[in-house]
Amino acid sequence: MSVAAVAAEPPAAQASLSSDLEQLTLRQAEIFFAARNRELQFGRRLVEGAEADRLSASARPNPNVFANTGKFNSRQGSYNGDLRDKQMDTVFGVQQLFERGNKRELRMDIADSVIQANRGDFAEIRRQQKVALYAAYYDLVAAQERVRIAAETAASFQKTLNAVERRLKAGDISAADVARIRVDALRAQNDARTAVAERAKAQTQLAYVIGAERDAVRIKATDGWPVAGVDPAEAEIDKALAGRADVLAAQARVTAAEKNRELARALRTRDVTGAVQFEHFPGDFSNNTFGVGVSIPLFTNYYYEGEIRRAEVDLSLARENYERVRALALGEIVARRADLDAARERVQRFEGALLKEAQRAADAAEFAYSRGAIGVMDLLDSQRQLYATRLEAAGTQADYAKSLASWQAAIAAAELGTAEAGSQP
Asked: Shortest CA distance to 206 belongs to which of 289, 140, 124, 269?
């Protein structure tokens, strides 16, 4: 469903759409993605175009009808009489090309392989776009988390500023210390505003992936982070490579190139053109005749060396591309696994110790400052450290979520089917 189609929907449907976007789960985002993503629509057209080419490849040559008139003499016979009485010969016939060398079947095999390759391309587009979907969704979750953290931090600084201003009036604190806290409070407000802007950018990015640009400001991601406590099992590399969409597409193009080489060689098998004709002579109908003819090309000047050589070069390119795609796929699987392991360890470190320690240090510093045991700079340092740690923890959670999605996509088996089947989530 396109955005234009959504705009034409009745108000009730529009309200339902807005409601879904305002409480957008990852599952609902996947449904919007499958129906609206523009790159997926492009991939479907690739498959449909290849299927149309299959119809052309399976077609047999059309016959030709011909007619010609010779020995026309308008001065003989009855000039004003029937045309059939004129002194002329008329020939009517039909010609039909008969392909030899299995050319039609080879064209169909090539078209079938191209269809499979385009379906693989479509599946690869879907795989990459789904990674983009997960990345955009979790970027929005992280942006929302940063907005919340920045707002809480700004509120905390404002609360501290209000407290020290009361102490300043009572003479318990210097104006310089109040100024330092005020500077940090203003910085926190700026950070909160920046976080809101970053959230708007994340909404726009996710809106494009799911085809809901006009309602980007309404999007709110409601799902949390994936659990990082379980170590995902290692993938069987050879099996993962064999099932990847890009590898399957490259393999299908090798098959198409092999069939194309066979077709190029089949050009040396002479096609035969047969003809049947009827010739009408003026005068007695018994003079009319029927005839047949055969036309066979002579390869006296050219023997299709260029087409055959080109097909062999294309086959070599297809085989080399297949090896290149496999190598890139292997590198992606290994790299995504390394990213996933590193991100998972960072998340566990933040959840297990860093956040707790930063919070404990901030609470202790605030308590000590209230008792006059530490100065204002120590208090501000502890609050800054807590703020930075919370932001870093949110970023690490987002990195893990995106790394998990990327690794799962890297080892996922392709779902090859028709363009319509591919449109399902």
From this structure: 140
